[in-house]
Specification:
Distance between the termini: 67 Å
Helix content: 55-70%
Number of domains: 2
Mean pLDDT: 83
Largest sheet: 5 strands, antiparallel
Radius of gyration: 29 Å
Strand content: 5-15%
Shape: elongated
Number of helices: 8
Oligomer: single chain
Structural class: alpha+beta
Length: about 270
């Protein structure tokens, strides 16, 4: 929290806040937030410009007390003046940044961001040992092979219902600084050898806001029915995923296992 009377503590607070902002803005989930963020930064540059001017003034105010280590007051005074001049120039640069931010704020203020035409739902997210196997597959056979393998976890509407129920729906597939992403058709694969995780997402087009069920009779909808449908989808999805992991070969999706059984290849 700012102290409003301890410039050293408040400078540290500002540094930490800007460091946090640099990390937070690595991913913007909602473009509607841009206008507000830029507006806050615009106000911050005005305060920063004022602070730089005041710091330069303080350097000149105490110029007579400036000395080098050897006691040379002349050199100390020259450095104090040079520091004040550099701070004045910094304030001018911040003023230019303020003007640019003001323009950016004006442009953003005229934008009405449209809703995305599709979202991404989580098909599967793997960590640790399970992710290691897929990362090995990527190293050996490439990302296309990994996507084909992870598609074995996708059960269409069941997967979509489970993702919606768990709020695993995104405007863009989640990524971080150490995450790589590739897309193929309707799928997006993200993976991180650093943090050992792999995820597959599928594009999903949400129904219109005013969409209603088909038919003229009473519709069996409402919070209770939605919860029941979501729970049923989760149970079915868990059962199928357990089959993928527990059929004797974790690395073989159940549809491939069925083929092996039909061909008599499995004993």
């Amino acid at each position: 929290m700012p102290t409003f009377n301890d410039p050293t503590a408040d400078a540290e607070e500002a540094r930490q806040a800007l460091r946090g902002l640099a990390h937070a803005t690595m991913r913007i989930d909602d473009p509607d937030k841009l206008y507000g963020i830029v507006g806050e930064l615009l106000a911050a540059t005005r305060s920063l410009e004022q602070s730089l001017i005041q710091l330069g003034g303080a350097s000149l105010t105490y110029q007579g007390r400036a000395a080098h280590d050897d006691g040379d007051l002349g050199l100390g005074a020259a450095d104090a003046w040079a520091a004040a001049d550099a701070l004045r120039q910094a304030a001018q640069h911040v003023n230019a940044a303020e003007s640019a931010l003001d323009q950016a704020s004006g442009h953003l203020g005229r934008i009405v961001w449209q809703r995305p035409q599709w979202h991404w739902v989580t098909v599967v997210f793997l960590q640790g040992e399970e992710a290691d196997r897929v990362l090995d597959l990527i190293d050996r056979d490439g990302t296309d092979a990994a996507i084909e393998h992870l598609r074995g976890f996708d059960y269409g509407d069941e997967t979509t219902s489970a993702a919606l129920a768990n709020e695993h729906v995104y405007d863009t597939p989640p990524t971080g600084a150490n995450t790589r992403m590739v897309t193929e058709s309707e799928y997006a694969l993200t993976y991180s050898p650093t943090f050992v995780h792999v995820a597959l997402y599928r594009s999903y087009t949400p129904p219109p806001d005013d969409a209603t069920g088909e038919g003229d009779g009473p519709q069996n909808t409402g919070p209770a029915q939605d919860a029941a449908n979501a729970e049923a989808a989760r149970r079915a999805l868990d059962e199928r995923r357990n089959r993928v992991r527990g059929d004797g070969s974790w690395f073989t999706p159940d549809r491939i296992t069925d083929i092996k059984r039909n061909r008599g290849l499995e004993r």
